[in-house]
Each structure stands twice: as C-alpha cells, then as structure tokens.
Amino acid sequence: MIGKALVAMALATAASAAEVPDPYLWLESVDSPRAMAWVEARNAYTTRKLEADPAYAANYAAALAIGGAKDRIPTPEFVHGAIYNFWQDADHLRGIWRTTTLEDYRVAQPNWRTVLDIDALGKAEGKSWVWKGTTCLEPDQRRCLVALSDGGEDAITVREFDVVTGRFVDGGFTLPHGKQEVAWEDADHILVAREWTPGELTTSGYAYVVKRVTRGQPLSAAVEVFRGDKADTLVSPATYVDGDGRRLTLITRARDFFHFEYDLVDAKGTRRLALPLKSTPVGLVAGRVVVRLDEAWSAGGANLPSGALAAVDLAAAMRDPAALAPSLVWAPGPRDALEDAATTRDRLLVSTLDNVRGRAWSFAPTANGWRKTPLPVADNMAIRLGDTDRRMDRAFLTVSGFLTPPTLSLVDTAAGTLTAVKSLPAKFDASGAIVEQHEAVSSDGTRIPYFIVHRRDLKLDGQTPTLLTAYGGFQVSRTPDYSATTGKLWIEKGGALVLANIRGGGEFGPAWHEAGLGVKRQIIYDDFAAVGRDLIARKITSPRRLGIEGGSNGGLLMGVQFTQHPELWHAVIIDVPLLDMIRIGKIAAGASWAGEYGDVDTDPVVRAFWEKTSPYQNLKAGVAYPEPFIFTTTKDDRVGPQHARKFAARLEELGYHFYFYENTEGGHGAGADLKQAARTTALEMTYLQAELMDR
Known about the structure:
Layout: H1 2-18, H2 33-51, H3 56-67, E1 77-79, E2 82-89, E3 92-100, H4 102-105, E4 113-117, H5 118-125, E5 129-136, E6 143-150, E7 156-162, E8 167-168, E9 174-178, E10 181-186, E11 189-193, E12 209-214, E13 223-227, E14 234-241, E15 247-254, E16 260-266, E17 269-273, E18 279-285, E19 288-293, E20 297-299, E21 302-304, E22 309-313, H6 314-319, E23 327-330, E24 336-343, E25 348-354, E26 357-366, E27 369-374, E28 382-389, E29 394-400, E30 407-412, E31 417-423, E32 433-441, E33 447-455, E34 466-469, H7 484-491, E35 496-500, H8 510-514, H9 522-537, E36 546-551, H10 553-564, E37 571-575, H11 594-597, H12 604-611, E38 627-633, H13 642-653, E39 659-663, H14 674-692
Parallel strand pairs: 34-35, 34-36, 36-37, 37-38, 38-39
Antiparallel strand pairs: 1-2, 2-3, 3-4, 5-6, 6-7, 7-8, 7-9, 10-11, 11-12, 12-13, 14-15, 15-16, 16-17, 18-19, 19-22, 20-21, 22-23, 24-25, 25-26, 26-27, 28-29, 29-30, 30-31, 32-33, 33-35
Helix pairs in contact: 1-12, 3-7, 3-14
C-alpha cells in the first residue's frame, strides 16, 4: 500500500508539473506562418553576423570544394552484375544514380553511365526530390524500388525501376508519400508497412500494419499479412537471400527501439521466430541465419553471451520456428565489441572493435562450426564494411583514420585478401599532426577512453583551441574516421580534435550502452565532462579554448553540458537536437525512443529525472552560459526542429545571446544538397574559429 501511495504521489506531482504552461508551444507548429517568421528572423541575424566574418567565404569555398570534389571515392554497390553509385557534385546538387563495370570502376577515371538524374527528375516533376536509396529484388537485382523524399524528410515515395531499361516501370509498384517500409517477397509481390487508413500509425508515427501488394493491383486490394498495435515503435518487413537462393522473409515488430519480435512469412502465414528480444538478423549464409545478439541467449543446449554473433539452421527454423538451436559464430573478449556484419555468397564478413581500434574478419561455415580468417587491416583505424556481393564471395571495405584518408579495398572473403581499389587524396595537411589515445576517470571511477588529434609541437599551456565531440547513445560507436572538412578548417589551422568514447555507445558492447539507459543517463554526461576536465588538467586546453559539438542524441548531450557545466566550455554547437525531454513523446518520432530515454508520460521516476536534466526545462537566468550555435532543419521529421526552436526562444527570453540557423530542407542532416551542407559547415566552422582561435 505504501508503494502504491508513493507512486500515486509521484504521478500527481508529474501531472502538476505537466500543467505548467509552455509559452513556446506555438513553435511546435512546424510550418505555421508565425513560427516560420520567427525562424526567418533568427536565421537573418545568424547569417548576417557570421557571413560577415572575414573567414566565412573561405570556409564556405573549402567546404563546397571538398563536398563536391571530383576525386572523392564513389561509394560502390553491387547491382545486377555491375557497380552502381549515387553521386553528387557541383553539377549534380541532388545527385545522379550511375553505373559502370567492376573492371572499369577500378581504373582512375571510370566511364560512368547515368541511370537516373535526381536534379532533372525533380525539375520535371516540380518536386524537391532527395535520394533515399533502393531495395532491389534478389538475386537478379534487375528490378529495384527507388525511394525519394520531398525535401529530405524521412517520409518517402517509392517507385519501381528497371535498371536494364533505365526507366521507371510502366504500371509497376508505386507507393505514395508516407513513412513506410517495403520489402520484395517475390517478383510479383511486395510487403509494405504504411498508414493504410488515416491514423493507422504508432504513437511514434510509424506503420504497424503490413500488407501484401500484388503486381497490377491497386493498393486498395492489398491483403493484410500482419498487424501490430499503436503501442509498438514500428513494424517492418525484410527478405534475406543466400548465395544458393534460399529465402527468409521476416516481419520485425519493434516493441521499442531495442526489443524486437520476429515473425517469419511463408505459405502458412506468419509464425513467431523464437529469437531473443534484443537481437538482429544479419543475413543468410549457406542456409544459416546469422543473428547479432545484444543479450545473452540460452536455447537448444547452447549458452551464448551478449554481444556475440550466432547462427541457426534455416531449414530447421522453417520447420519449427519455436525450437531454435543456435551455434556460436563469434564472441567478444573483455575489450571487444561487434561493430558490423554482412554476408557474401558463402562467407560472413565481420568488423569488430578492440579497444576502439578496428578489426576485420572473414568467417566460413563448416560442418563443425565457423572458420575465422583475419583480414590484413592497419591498426588504429576505423573499418567500414561496404556493399557485399551475394553472387560471389567479395565485398568492399574502407579503412581510414583521423589523419589517414580512406582507402577502399575489394575483399575476397574466400581467400581472406584485400586489394586496394581507390584512395582519397589528402584533403588537408596532416604532416604536423599526431593521434593519441588517453583515458579520463568518470564520476564512478570508470576509465573513459578518448582520441585526441593535435599538432606534434603542442605546448601544454592550456592555449590550444580544442573541439570535443561524442555521441553517447543507441549503442552507436564512434571511431577514428577521416573528416576532410574538419581537417581543413580546424586541424590544419592548429586546432585539436577530441573524440570521446563515452558510455551509451557501443564501443565496448551492449553493456557499455546499457550503463546509461533511461534514468541511469547522468553517467553518460559525467563521462563527457570528465574528458573535458582531463583535457584541462593535462593543460592541453582551457575552458576559454574548449568547444564542444554534437548532433541528434549528441545534440541532447551538448544541451545537457551547456546547462550542467557552462564553466567548462566557451563554444557549444548543438545540431538537430533533442532538448525538450518532457515533450519528447509528442514531437516528431520522439515516442519511438522510450527504450533509450525512458517514458516521461507513464513513468514518474523517468519524468523526475528529466525534469532536473532536460536542457529546455533547466535553462536559468543569471548563469554565465557560453554563446551557443543551434542548428536544425524544418524538414526534420525524425527529431523535429521544435526542440531547437524552443531552446533558442527560452535563451532569448532570459536575455542570452546565441546563434540559431534552421535550414528549410535537409531532413535530419546538414542539407538537402551540397550547397546547403557547405553553408551549414561554413557557418559552424566560422563560429568555432571566432570563439576559440586567435585570428
């Protein structure tokens, strides 16, 4: 009874707090004339001030030149026996989808053939089309479902495209605008999750009903295959095919962002596949379903650890999906983490982290398990798996470092060899810089690793302009990637760059992420502050020279650092952020992240935590805050621009100075085309240079 009384009291307190009026709710109406007039006025101030800075023009020119450079590595995809690439440059701001042969791709100047011109398509149709990728019918890959977004939002339009004729298919599959997921079932059927009737969406704004659409029939004739409910995060279909043509079609029901139920689809209808809730299918290899585990799994006599890769026999799973007998493919050591995995014809390609250093492996299925072959990659680098070829045992893999431009290699997963195909020329002078890895001690004694890139002749006098960044959420790992614009506009100018591998990420597996879930999240923010203090204690920098930057969940991290530790930073960039954690479930897709942040609307403990932590609610008068740069986009239908707007409006009410810039396109990113992205980069780099550097 006492427990129930305490819960009731907490709920009453939360309800009372919820009744406090929010004076900036009107800014949540994304496209209202009043809200857009407010945006335009703040944009005008920011662009007038920063574009007048003598450094801006050069920063913009450099960012645009790097973003649209002809010597970038064109990201390859295996499609219909050829290489395809989506490419943007100064002549193709929205981009072209183009193709060549693998042999031709390997030469310095391939002979590309344009398949689809997005700029021309948008002009012809009067749309602000943004490319969102393709889903091709396996194994032939001649027919592809092309996804296009109007202005860059997550909602898409889907059309069937024939790569042989180079045209959209007359009478082919077409799905009108909406947040939707689609998968090929076979040549004449697709499975689609979308808003079939008005309001048939989860509280997160995603579909929960999957229907089978038959070629030549209208959407109104689609047959329901699976139905979740509004409390789910989303429901989506997917089809996996191995090198011998075996197929597995699954419907994923996301109960929240990290817990999933899987139903296989066959002639019998749908049947639950008894995978752990915290697991993700990777693909099929030689009749085995490979599964990533984010929790321990005991089944069929096997006990597999969290963070491992497992495999189950496809034929056995189809016979009895409730009685799975998994086997181990790979298990992590104490400082290991699984980064990525993908399938080729007969092999599994895996990238892992060893103390945040990239490793790569090829796994071959055998009668007695899996044979592991290490791939020869350099140390202290970031490893990125590229596209894989399900027809042959080959794949693309990219290796890069903070100071090492990316090299794209073709992997022979059967032989375990890499052949360099293309390398990006250096985009900034890194000759005077080095990379080090240090550790800071967080509030609970945990050692938090971080990388620092700085000049070789660094003076430990606290005067080095330093930019510290992190993400700290959703089990996303941050590794030593090459950033040409940051290198050119920051490192080359003498600034130091720091990447903190704080908890909430996946750098050390699921436990590193789970340490900061929900109301445990303060430890993530303590980790980040600890790295800042460690940089100051080492006299690498000082609060006067220390700036921080992060986007999305990283934008929330920046907002918390802004309110909790204003004394540590002199510049704060808050990109496409979450900042109002009390109304997060009512803004854009915010309800979908309750698994990460907790549910403020149903759990009084979660609400109490965010009432004392949420950046928007914790801005106060009379605090010596740094002058921040806040960036968002009107078309962001994932996080939404509402958070950034309201945070800026509250700062303004309290009399603080700030920079605010909202791009009217771009979705959850820097811009819808190269010029928009270059402008965002130039504004932010000009701000950082002005705040932290002596010029």
